[in-house]
Every structure is written in C-alpha cells, then in structure tokens.
Amino acid sequence: MKDDAFAQQFTQMMDARGLYLGPRLARNVDFGSFRRVLDIAGASGIYACCLVAAYRHLSATVFERAPVDSVARRCIVRRGCAKRVAVFPGDMFLTPFPEGFDVHLFSNVLHDWDVPAIRSLLRKSYTALSTGGMILIHDAHLNRQKTGPLPVAAHSVFLMAVTEGRYYSISEIEIFLKEAGFSATKYRKNALEHSIITARKISA
Fold it and tell me: What is the C-alpha separation between 47 and 104, in angstroms, rounded?
C-alpha cells in the first residue's frame, strides 16, 4: 500500500465491495445518538461516506496513511461528500488517534493483523474515544466454536499465508474488547459473510 499505483488499484477494489456493504452497515447499526465517526484505516472512505449519507447529523474523518490518504480525498470529492467527510493522515500504529470522536470504525482492518497488534489498536481506540462512545468492528468472523462458516474459514487460511492476520471468532473479538476496557458488547449479522461487533466506552 506504500506504492501509489498499487494503493489506487487495491483501494478501488475494496471500494466496490464497500458500495454494497456500506449502506447495509448504516441500516444495521443505530447512529442516531452519535455525531462524529473516525474511520480507522478507512481506505477510500466508502464506509464513512455511506454513514453520512444515511445520517444527516453525522460527520466522519478517514484516518489513513500516505499514499492512501490522497486516494481517499479524491474518492470522497468524487462522491460529493467532502463537506462532511475529512481525511486525517497518519499511521494507525504510530500516529495518535485524534480525539473528539464518539464512534471508532474498524471495517475490514483487524483481520490483517496478529493478536498483539489488535490488542494495541483496541487499547489505543479506548484511550482516544469519547466517554460514552462506540467502537464498531465490521469484518468477517468465525462463529464462537470456530467451526465455520466455511467460506470465512477458507479465506482465513489465505490470509494467514499473505498477511500477519486471520479471521477471528466472535468470542475472540469480544475478549479483545473487554481486555481493552470496552463493555456492552453486541453482535449482529450484516451482509454477505460480514458481521458487526459493537462495544461501548462507558467510563473515562
């Protein structure tokens, strides 16, 4: 993703999937009481744009490192969302998350990383998220028993070969969230093989 041409091509491919999943994500989570979304490693910004399109009171910021941040800006402008979706440049492992956001979105992010990296990101999210805020993990997940679904398990084997990560089970994500300090965890299905896990930061 550090190569500009590859970043452009890969982000466009992820964008096509997001055009289908993004509106369904907006329908399956109630954002009515929230105001500002930080879309961490948000690629083209497709999910941020889908959320602000569904909720007029929302604004969003896509947190992405170079050169993907430039790709995101172009995509956001092309969708006509530049007034409500900003881009904040930074590496999610090295740059502090900006404060003042009451939703942190990790969409199709955690499956690329091993457990220590995930724990670090979730602790970092808990620290920066506004009290009362929500973390939202949108990804494919194995079931609690790790017996399926078969397409998710099969793709997880591929991920283990080409990335540092794999697909995690619902229970594993719940444990990671609890360890980071989050509570009130909820799980729900989205579309295709994707699902949604939310949790709240109840106290500072």
Answer: 12
Q: Are 139 and 110 in contact (CB under 8 A)?
A: yes
What angle, 0 to 180 degrees and rounded to 10, lies between the N-to-C axes of helices 4-28 and 46-54?
30
pLDDT higher than 80, residue 13: no
pTM of the complete model: 0.92
| CATH code at 4-110+117-140+178-200 | 3.40.50.150
For residue 175, give the H/E element and its range.
Answer: helix 170-180
Cα–Cα distance measured from residue 139 to residue 124, given in angstroms and rounded to the nearest whole number: 19
Nearest CA to 69 out of 77, 59, 58 is that of 77
Residue at token pair 């602790």:
123
pLDDT tens for residues 113-170? 999 999 999 999 999 999 999 999 999 999 999 999 999 999 999 899 888 999 999 9
